[in-house]
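Let us practice reading a record.
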Amino acid sequence: MLTFSRVPLPWLNLTHDKLRLVARVLGTAFAVFLLFVELGFWDALLRASVQLIEQFNGPLIVVSQANYSLVIKEPFPRRYLAQTRAVAGVQDVFPVYLEHPAALWKDTSVARAERTASQPIRVIAFNPDQPVLDNPAITKYHNALKVPYNVLLDSKSKKQSYGEIKAGIDRELAGHAVHVAGLFTLGADFANDGNVIMSAETYGRLFSDDKPPERVLESVDLGVVQIAPGADPQAICQTLRQILPPEVRVFTKDEFKRRERVYWSKTTPMGFIFFLGLCVGFIVGGVICYQIISTDVAEHLPQFATLKAMGYRDAFLNGVVLSEALWLALLGFVPGLGMSWLSYQWLNRETGMSLELSWFSVLLVLFLTIVMCVASGLVALRKVRMADPAEVFA
């Protein structure tokens, strides 16, 4: 292209009017910003859906046959975990209890007239003596969790929903007073604005439904399987699938994460909405870039006609337009990246989610921006081909 020629015509065309250059760059930057935001939400959806699974301290997961996502509560009898523990190569199995709709959190620190309504929060419960989660905070507050009605609160829980997030406070959960003994870090997702960790004993008391706590704990939501050193997870997984009853299913951690991502990306409306938003962002960005390049070509149409009259071929003129499009993509990408980084920081702080600017997303958006601008330039080339040298001398 002509970008690196002796006379940088594309660059001069783009920069001769500084104020207009700023407007064009900001227009392209806005298109880049749209792509980054939609891609960020899409990526956050997929990562947030598996962040709890990634912390499970075991390579195999046992769940109910009826369970097709962590957000669906489908418990199964705990005795199936005892069968799992008896299989050769299995070192231990940790029962995990999850609660979503019945776990209502209330901020009792303010006057009754100022209290917000109870907000649902995800409860994760297990035996504190078992290393269920690979999380340093769990180890730190190991003994505190053994005290009835002591809980750990996710530091990334939304303050708008749950009020002040700190250790040492007393709140109400499922109609019972609880004490926040400490904080841990997990993060919100698109189904839960916050998380609470407690012991299985406390869970049995909070969600007893007038049943003895021991009866409540007879049904579990999932089991985390630890295997003996040197054992083959795939082989043990196949063995468990053969001997356990059809009421339960066994997954490797990678399979379980993949299942959760597929559920959120393909089954729920959220995945479709964010994917559609990414496509719409690309289309909107393409329209913006086309308007910028098309307007510039229209303004310089007499100059293009003059170049044709001087003997320059269409390939040369096409190179000028496409080089301008490439420069526009690169110039607009930098401020768009900066705007996106700032918006990611704000969204992370306000939502408790984790939007990250990975190298993959940066390179992907840069590629999409170049494609978007160059494609717009290709469409705008029609006006260059229509430039008639005879009009210059008319």
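A brief commentary: The longest strand covers residues 90-99.
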